[in-house]
Design goal:
Elements (H helix, E strand, L loop, with lengths): L5 E12 L1 H11 L7 E8 L2 E8 L2 H4 L2 H7 L2 E9 L14 E5 L2 E8 L5 H10 L10 H13 L4 H9 L7 E5 L4 E5 L8 E4 L5 E4 L2 H6 L3 E5 L5 E5 L2 E5 L10 E2 L1 H6 L5 E2 L2 E2 H15 L6 E4 L5 H11 L7 E3 L12 H11 E3 L1 H4 L3 E6 L6 H12 L4 E6 L21 H4 L2 H8 L3 E4 L2 H4 L10 E2 L1 H4 L21
Parallel strand pairs: 14-23, 17-20, 20-21, 21-22
Antiparallel strand pairs: 1-4, 1-10, 2-3, 2-4, 5-6, 6-7, 7-8, 8-12, 9-10, 9-11, 12-13, 15-16, 18-19
Length: 470
């Protein structure tokens, strides 16, 4: 299973109010992007308060924790899945810094490709790191530049000259909210108007909807948006410097179906993927079912294009939270059963087309196919709404080794045999680039075709900053 990366949220309003509660609401809407840790920092007329910990948003922020944060006029928040650094509390965000010119809080979605080199240089200058994530590299650079700059936005502009890779940032100073997107636009970031005249920034528009904000637009790749009492301003010095490379997996899996990214609703993109799959890999079957949740929209699209009826064949237990790596095959299958339960009436005696968003190692879908066959399916034909994973991702998706990618080591036919499918069909890379429609935005498909938009980092392991034990 591919894990989500992170979600960021920021809010600014002219008057003090319950911004922590609003940040909580925004993060709750972004919970699908990360379930390992969550945090919120707020500014109350320049006084910073923050809380973060491991767990879901609802676990980290019981009511008393929100009450302790109190009211303010600016807040930033973060939900995390660790694609760089360990999943402990020390790596939870926001990262809050107190420096000679005031306070600052940083939230980051994405991965830098030059973080190892930057960290080594900072350590040589005496910087002491307390986390093992590349976000602290950004915070150190931003602190250094802020001490030599006239404003936080000028400092951030200088930092963007030094960092490379994927980053969507929200940054809070005592009086300003900043949102910034890397020059290639790997990760989404949008901004919207609040009914009271304030502004909110978020990884996805669904978080703006949750707090009652009206989506204004996506940030341009390379753009910095600054919100303060002086109004809203845009700094575009880093725009149009690089070819756009929005992660196509935002449409295929990461984002919520109701989010709008670069003008395209994620639901529509996934339905399009299903229709393209039906044209490329037709099959005679009786029913189409999707793997909840990200396979459902593609299944609907496949049905519409093929004429094969769609039905709900798998029910997801909404109360199954974070899971662990089970020590035995029996327990692994039990975990799948606890999460997804088949509906026998839909499956028994049928030729089934099973739609899912991806295959990584192949073990989870193999267990699911086994369960579907036990339920009485005559045939199981698997269709995947993404191309085969062949290469690691360096930009914030948890795909860090070709050794664990079944498609990198086996043919389609071999993979089908391994997972127990009668047939297997993937979306092509060419079709994957078509699913957002005519949005006019370049997409990153490096994990599928190996065409990386940046230089490949020399040391890209998830735990590359962890210290060895002696």
């Amino acid at each position: 299973m591919i894990h989500e990366e992170c979600g960021v949220f920021g809010i600014w309003q002219a008057k003090s109010g319950p911004v922590a509660q609003m940040a909580y609401t925004g993060l709750f809407a972004l919970q699908h992007r990360g379930q390992e840790a969550a945090g919120i920092a707020l500014s109350d007329r320049g006084v910073f308060r923050h809380h973060k910990d491991v767990g879901l948003v609802s676990e980290v922020f019981a009511k008393d924790e929100l009450d302790r944060l109190g009211e303010g006029n600016i807040a930033v928040g973060h939900v995390r899945y660790s694609t760089s650094g360990n999943p402990g509390r020390s790596n939870a965000q926001p990262i809050v810094v107190r420096h000679g010119k005031g306070n600052m809080a940083v939230c980051h979605n994405g991965n830098l490709v030059n973080s190892t080199l930057l960290r080594e240089k900072l350590e040589q200058k005496g910087c002491i790191f307390h986390t093992t994530s590349d976000t602290e590299v950004i915070s150190y650079l931003l602190t250094q530049e802020r001490l030599e700059s006239g404003s936080i936005e000028e400092a951030l502009e200088r930092v963007m000259d030094r960092i490379d890779g994927a980053y969507s940032l929200v940054v809070m100073s005592p009086t300003k909210l900043l949102a910034a997107r890397d020059p290639r636009g790997f990760r989404p970031l949008c901004i919207g108007h609040l009914p009271n005249g304030g502004f909110a920034a978020a990884s996805e528009s669904c978080a703006l909807d949750a707090v009652g904000a009206r989506l204004e637009r996506e940030l341009e790749p390379g753009e910095i948006v600054v919100v303060s009492r002086e109004g809203v301003s845009s700094i575009r010095s880093h725009c149009l410097q690089s070819t756009r490379a929005l992660c196509v997996f935002e449409y295929i899996y990461f984002a919520r179906p109701d989010s709008v990214i670069e003008g395209c609703t994620v639901h529509d993109a996934r339905r399009c993927a299903g229709k393209l799959l039906a044209a490329a890999h037709p099959v005679d079957a009786d029913v189409i079912i999707g793997v909840p949740d990200s396979g459902l929209d593609a299944a609907i699209g496949f049905s519409a294009a093929s004429g094969i009826p769609y039905d709900v064949g798998l029910v997801k237990n909404k109360y199954v939270g974070r899971t662990f790596i089970a020590p035995s095959q029996e327990l692994r299958e039990q975990m799948v059963r606890n999460k997804l339960n088949p509906i026998r009436r839909v499956i028994e005696g049928k030729r089934v087309v099973l739609l899912d968003d991806s295959i990584v190692r192949g073990t989870t879908i193999a267990q699911l196919i086994h369960i579907i066959r036990e339920t009485g399916a005559k045939e199981v034909h698997v269709r995947i709404s993404a191309p085969p994973f062949l290469h690691p991702c360096y930009y914030g998706t948890d795909i860090d080794s070709e050794e664990n990618l079944i498609a990198a080591r086996h043919s389609v036919e071999e993979t089908a045999a391994f997972i127990g499918a009668d047939t297997l069909g993937y979306l092509s890379v060419e079709d994957a680039k078509k699913i957002p429609g005519q949005m006019g935005c370049g997409l990153c498909t490096a994990c599928f075709d190996g065409c990386y938009p940046t230089q490949v980092p020399r040391d890209a392991g998830k735990n590359r900053f962890e210290q060895p034990l002696f």
